[in-house]
């Protein structure tokens, strides 16, 4: 497979909301399998007449905090292996958490292109709060609202360059 975009990030930042928006009603082309892939969803996205596979990571079964964090790290490592491009989603309403920092550290070591999507920027005022995410050390940030779709076009314009 080629042209694969993985959405990674800690729980509740809005990954699945973006995934649903990108894949709409298009059918998943890969069935979920046992083990760690049980927690991943595959769909087909389309932007400016280019098709690509979108992977939604998350939906973790474990509830112990340690296992939880380990599972998220595992998903990030798989995403780096499997995807051509990674969208690292963070949440403007919470700022940078320890887990965000951990994920950023893993992603900075990867050779794959990473796009930081600062989600829940639902209004103009929140854009100034988003600037703290530059300190993740992953370059440009993209302010989006997965809920309304604002900013997602600008993000996809950049992502699609890799496909
Ligand atoms: P995931 O755990 O990262 O997959 O996050 P979800 O997509 O399940 O979303 C977690 C929560 O954030 C849900 O209540 C969503 O409705 C909410 N959410 C997602 N995107 C946005 C957004 O752009 N703005 C706001 N205000 N809420 C959002
Ligand atoms: Mg989810």
From TrEMBL:
Keywords: GTP-binding, Nucleotide-binding, Repeat, Ribosome biogenesis. It comes from the Bacteria. GTP 1 binds at residues 9-16, 56-60, 119-122. The keyword Repeat applies. One of its GO terms (biological process) is ribosome biogenesis. One of its GO terms (molecular function) is ribosome binding. The keyword Electron transport does not apply. Residues 3-163 form the EngA-type G domain. Associates with the 50S ribosomal subunit. Belongs to the TRAFAC class TrmE-Era-EngA-EngB-Septin-like GTPase superfamily. EngA (Der) GTPase family. GTPase that plays an essential role in the late steps of ribosome biogenesis. This is GTPase Der. The lineage of its organism: Bacteria, Pseudomonadati, Bacteroidota, Sphingobacteriia, Sphingobacteriales. The gene is der.
């Amino acid at each position: 497979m080629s042209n694969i975009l993985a959405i990674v990030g800690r729980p509740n930042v809005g990954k699945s909301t973006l995934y649903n928006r990108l894949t709409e009603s298009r059918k998943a082309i890969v069935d979920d399998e046992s083990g760690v892939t049980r927690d991943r969803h595959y769909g087909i996205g389309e932007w400016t007449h280019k098709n690509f596979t979108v992977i939604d990571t998350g939906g973790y079964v474990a509830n112990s905090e340690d296992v939880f964090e380990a599972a998220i790290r595992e998903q990030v490592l798989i995403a780096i292996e499997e995807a051509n491009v990674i969208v690292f989603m963070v949440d403007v309403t919470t700022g940078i958490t320890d887990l965000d920092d951990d994920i950023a550290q893993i992603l900075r070591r990867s050779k794959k292109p990473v796009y930081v999507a600062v989600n829940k920027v639902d209004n103009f005022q929140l854009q100034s709060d988003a600037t703290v995410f530059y300190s993740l050390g992953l370059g440009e940030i993209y302010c989006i609202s997965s809920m309304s779709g604002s900013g997602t076009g600008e993000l996809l314009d950049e992502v699609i360059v890799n496909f």
